[in-house]
Design brief:
- The chain is α+β, with helices and mostly antiparallel strands.
- It is built from two helices and five strands.
- A five-stranded mixed beta barrel has the order 1-2-3-5-4.
- A hairpin with a 2-residue loop joins strand 4 and strand 5.
- Helix 1 crosses helix 2.
- The longest helix is centred in the first third of the chain and has 18 residues.
Amino acid sequence: MKLRVILGAGALAFTAFAINPAFAQMTMDHAKMGMAVAPGMTDGEVRKIDKDAGKITIKHGEIKHMEMPGMTMVFVVKDKALLDKTSVGAKIRFMATNENGQMTVTDIQPAK
């Protein structure tokens, strides 16, 4: 008798989730399903610029699409002309990607 009650309760719970997709959506973690966060701009402050080497040091917030916490780090820039768009101490928004193992800034915009 107890087995029948346990199986019945399990079937009822399964049916509730199967019939009501709102329950299923509440428990889904899209990042764990292979659905990566779309790349986006990150807030930062320029700490250092090395135009000759094509590098920029940025104190930045979390880079969500790379699952990287906020920190200060050196990036290479995809195009050295990006460095002409900013200066040391400037508040910026930037796009970073991992290109062949190098953290690379692909866009820099002034923060608003």
